Amino acid sequence: MSFNATDGSQSNQDALDVGNDVHTLLLAQLRAIKARPNVTSISNFASYVAAIAYNACYGHLRKKYPQRARLKNRVRYLLANNETFVLWESPERQWLCGFAQWRDQNRKPAQLGRLQQLADKPELLKADGDLPVVDPATPHASVLTATRQDKSARVSSGVTSCASPR
Questions:
Q1: 37 and 82 in one domain?
Q2: Based on the domain organization, do 83 and 151 belong to the same domain?
Q3: How far is the C-alpha of 129 from the C-alpha of 151, rounded, in Å?
Q4: Are 45 and 120 contained in the same domain?
Q5: Which of 12-21, 27-36, 86-95, 144-153 is predicted with the least confidence, judged by mean pLDDT?
Q6: How many domains does the structure of the chain reveal?
Q7: Per-residue pLDDT reduced to its tens digit, 19-74
Q8: How does 110-121 read in b/e, with b if 16+ C-beta sit within 10 Å?
Q9: Is the CA virtual torsion 137, 138, 143, 144 positive or negative?
């Protein structure tokens, strides 16, 4: 991507569109502040611009990949509304998900290579059902589901390639 108006590639055009959206939003906000300086202000302009840029990129990806956005929302709903699973932030500010009892165990997330091993050979899972914590932001991470009654696990492929969930 060149971020150049003469580059006709789709990814460049998408980037230019998002950049123009950011400019438009910034100008609209600055004009609103100028019109009513006592009502609104921006205390940290660099942070404000970064937030607008992030939200514009995220909005573009939601429009471009609506199924991914729906899947992400459904996974977050499952994690938030099922007492068996939780979503939490590690001390390293990394988002993790897994069984509720894992949250306080300070477990490290599984690496993509380990998840692929489990996808290829599910018998590698320990008999006690000790599954790896999954980092939901890992690109192309496998999704692990486990049946707690018989401690068996089924590994199924899923596509996730998101930045830190918000």
A1: no
A2: yes
A3: 5
A4: no
A5: 144-153
A6: 2
A7: 899 999 999 989 988 888 787 788 899 999 999 999 999 999 999 999 999 998 99
A8: beeeebbebeee
A9: negative
